[in-house]
TrEMBL record:
Domain UvrD-like helicase C-terminal positions: 287-567
Family membership: Belongs to the helicase family. UvrD subfamily.
EC number of this enzyme: 5.6.2.4
Pfam families per UniProt: PcrA_UvrD_tudor, UvrD-helicase, UvrD_C
UniProt organism field: Marinomonas ostreistagni
EC top class, as a word: isomerase
Reactions that this protein is recorded to catalyse: ATP + H2O = ADP + phosphate + H(+); Couples ATP hydrolysis with the unwinding of duplex DNA by translocating in the 3'-5' direction
GO terms of molecular function: DNA helicase activity; hydrolase activity
Sorted UniProt keywords: ATP-binding, DNA-binding, Helicase, Hydrolase, Isomerase, Nucleotide-binding
Stated name of the protein: DNA 3'-5' helicase
Ranges of residues in domain UvrD-like helicase ATP-binding: 8-286
Residues reported in the UniProt entry to bind ATP: 29-36
DNA sequence: CTGCAGACCTGCGTC
DNA sequence: AGGTCTGCAG
């Protein structure tokens, strides 16, 4: 069979990666080097050149979007969908294994997946039942602790005992949480992975079956794998199978959620005869942009080493704009966007990237004022929205009235006279008798255990759910019709309609969208492990964000955080708010390794740009209600100077005469000088790290500085008075 | 039981 | 500044 079509359109390195022998291989794919392309062609190659059945292949990604894209591109290249191949996210595949082998995994058949919101609710519920002090152990932190343990593959029993009461409390909470999940058949996201790993570990026959089945496993974004994902992969691949890991250590930006960059660095230790290929030719960006990215990232240690290059010319230098404040910064960005638009460019080809979501508001306001369409990426997932989760909870309750989580959620939504007091009583009875809340409610109604008014409200609710249950049984109704009826019977539409503002309108829209999504849901696509379309739909709703942005196809400027920009590309990119304390985030200064991660995040940002990149920062910024003065980010200094140019806006904005913008290149020089002088603030005797004394605020530590001459200011962390910025020429500071 | 007013906290956010 | 959560008045 002629397989040349698979290799024809590739460069030498890509071809080497695609046509590599059937052995373990690591493809270090730089930004814009054709990573997905290699992965897809590799799959086609394995199928055609080695005649491996798609049934024997598994491809793992991190997001549903990536999984869908891969599936679509395989189909495009090969001509037919890869029948029998497993393509999915880590969680999706783990879930599939658990549904198929629920008994071996020690689960009940009806187990349910919780999202982070459900998890938090459960933790709160447990803590309240046990009367644990929520100020000492904040529920959010408890969740965070549990998830971090699971990322590391540890159950409560594996958490090492430490002797401080706080950690002990955390561990204890984990125990109680585990118990509650077990009892109610609930699995959080981390549990899916942990359980799938244990399933393989404790069932050698099953493990052997899958090891023999999957001849080759492919993993995308390998630098993002955490400990448990890595352990599971090692098991699944085994001694006989092999792996193709594709990733980029320079784009590892999820350390805070358990990703271990070491996994990619240590790959050769655990997978024998690892064949490493570097893809360094970039097809996305201009020379200047790549040079800037290379220069920046070279400041990180412990890299596997990679240098991007292109043969498509230098392009324009990167423009740096110093805004007077965040308003000015936004105005500048929109000015450039208008220029590009008027030159005939599509808005969807322009992206504004920022470090944190809070930064988007000022930019949005400016876009609205100028009537430029925009779209914000990320933010709330469709199925995470309150109104959607409520509708889904009604469906859950209709399927299984003993689902306490769902019951708690909707028993009084919309309000129907069942308040905290009544719910408390139901909960109490349920706990005393070890039955579900539904059964408890049933007793209240039949034995009149509560005042008539409350009992009647409960009775009404139960009849409502029973009605929904029979709707569910109606074989003539499709999934969409069922949701339509559930929403109508629950009265969710009028409930949200009377909400004030545009919020309610949006919620009603979303509910309609849910009916749409349910009608369009194709059960057959999701294979044989599910007992009913409704069950499959509910699981999918938890695992898939549901990209349901209504105006997805409208031509609009793209706004997103740097994190959600990974994997995307745009001809015109703005990186906004590139200031010390913001980017790199001040929180990255404390923990070792975090600054490097911030730098990688900046690298990701730079490499999103195809033709033109603007870096902007503001000299003063209002954030969280108070004003801060940050110096330009160190990352700007780390970019080779010849790649940069300073820009000023022609239409000058009004600014106080006294606040002249300092010359940008001068400020860089100044900072370089500062570094050479060991962070000494010019013309003073105060240095970073000095202890100083202030006549009013008392003693403190100098933690930051900026400006020079009469404007020079230092940030002092006072022992008692907190952190303050002081102008050196006014504040009478004494160095201790 | 419900609705409003003040306290709180505040990074990124897949599944 | 702004959303969520808790506490009190109707």
């Amino acid at each position: 069979m002629d397989v040349s079509f698979i290799l024809d359109a590739l460069n030498d390195k890509q071809r080497e990666a695609v046509a590599a022998p059937l052995q373990n291989s690591l493809v270090l794919a730089g930004a814009g080097s054709g990573k997905t392309r290699v992965l897809v062609h590799r799959i086609a190659w394995l199928m055609h050149a080695y005649e491996i059945s798609p049934y024997s292949l598994m491809a793992v990604t991190f997001t549903n979007k990536a999984a869908r894209e891969m599936q679509a591109r395989i189909e495009q290249l090969v001509g037919v969908p890869p029948q029998g191949m497993w393509v999915g996210t880590f969680h999706g595949i783990a879930h599939r294994l658990l549904r198929a082998h629920w008994r071996d995994a020690g689960l009940k058949e009806s187990f349910q997946i919780m999202d982070s919101d459900d998890q938090l609710r459960l933790v709160k519920r447990i803590m309240r039942e046990l009367s644990i002090d929520e100020t000492r152990w904040p529920p959010k932190q408890v969740c965070w602790f549990i998830n971090a343990q699971k990322d590391e593959g540890r159950r409560a029993a594996h958490v090492p005992d430490s002797h401080d009461p706080f950690s002990r409390g955390m561990r204890e909470m984990y125990y109680h949480y585990e118990e509650a999940c077990e009892k109610n058949g609930l699995l959080d996201f981390g549990e899916l992975l942990l359980r799938a790993h244990e399933l393989m570990l404790t069932n050698p026959a099953l493990l052997k079956h899958y090891q023999q089945r999957f001849v080759h496993v492919l993993v995308d974004e390998f630098q993002d794998t955490n400990t448990i994902q890595y352990a599971w992969l090692r098991l699944m691949v085994g001694e006989e199978g092999s792996i193709t890991a594709v990733g980029d250590d320079d784009q590892s930006i999820y350390g805070w959620r358990g990703a271990k960059i070491e996994n990619i660095q240590n790959l050769s230790k655990h997978f024998k005869d690892l064949h490493t290929i570097r893809l360094e030719q970039n097809y996305r960006s201009t020379g200047h942009i790549l040079k800037a990215a290379n220069g920046l990232i070279s400041n990180n240690d412990d890299r596997l080493g990679k240098e991007l290059w292109t043969d498509s010319g230098e392009g324009e230098p990167i423009s740096v704009y110093a805004g007077f404040n965040e308003q000015d910064e936004a105005r500048f960005i929109i000015e450039i966007i208008k220029k590009w638009r008027d030159d005939g460019n599509a808005l969807k080809d322009m992206a504004i990237l920022y470090r944190s979501n809070a930064q988007s508001r000022v930019i949005e306001e400016c876009l609205v004022r100028e009537q430029i369409a925009y779209r914000i990426y990320g933010g709330h997932r469709f199925y995470d929205r309150l109104e959607i989760k409520n509708a889904l909870a009604y469906a859950r309750l209709a399927i299984d009235p003993n689902d306490d989580g769902a019951m708690e959620r909707v028993i009084n939504v919309p309000t129907r006279g069942i308040g905290e007091r009544s719910i408390g009583t139901i909960r109490e009875i349920a706990r005393d008798q070890g039955c579900s809340m539904w059964q408890a409610a049933d007793q209240i109604v039949t034995h009149s255990l509560m005042p008539a008014r409350a009992a009647n409200a409960i009775k009404g609710f139960m009849q409502l759910i029973q009605g929904m249950a029979s709707t569910l049984q109606n074989p003539d109704l499709g999934l969409g019709d069922i949701f339509d009826q559930i929403i109508a019977e629950a009265g969710l539409i009028p409930y949200h309609e009377k909400e004030k503002g545009e919020k309610g309108e949006a919620r009603v829209e979303n509910l309609k969208e849910l009916v749409n999504a349910a009608s369009g849901f194709n059960w057959l696509e999701t294979d044989e492990e599910f007992s009913s379309p409704m069950m499959a739909f509910l699981d999918q709703a938890v695992l898939d964000a549901g990209e349901a942005q209504a105006d997805e196809y409208q031509d609009s400027v793209q706004l997103m955080t740097l994190h959600s920009a990974k994997g995307l590309e745009f001809p015109l990119v703005f990186m906004a708010g590139v200031e010390e304390n913001l980017f790199p985030s001040r929180m990255s200064f404390e923990e070792p390794g975090r600054l490097e991660e911030e730098r990688r995040l900046c690298y990701v940002g730079i490499t999103r740009a195809m033709q033109k990149l603007y870096i902007t920062y503001a000299e003063s910024r209002r954030l969280h209600g108070s004003e801060s003065f940050n110096s330009p980010s160190r990352f700007i200094r780390e970019i080779p100077e010849e790649c940069l140019e300073e820009v000023r806006l022609r239409s000058q904005v009004a600014r106080p005469v006294s606040m002249q913008r300092p010359d940008y290149s001068a400020s860089i020089q100044r900072q370089n000088q500062n570094i050479m002088q060991g962070h000494t603030v010019p013309e003073t005797n105060v240095s970073m790290g000095d202890r100083v004394k202030h006549p009013i605020f008392g003693e403190g530590l100098v933690v930051n500085y900026e400006g020079q001459g009469p404007q020079a200011r230092v940030q002092v962390n006072f022992d008692d008075a907190g952190t303050k910025w002081l102008v050196l020429s006014f504040a009478k500071l004494e160095v201790l």
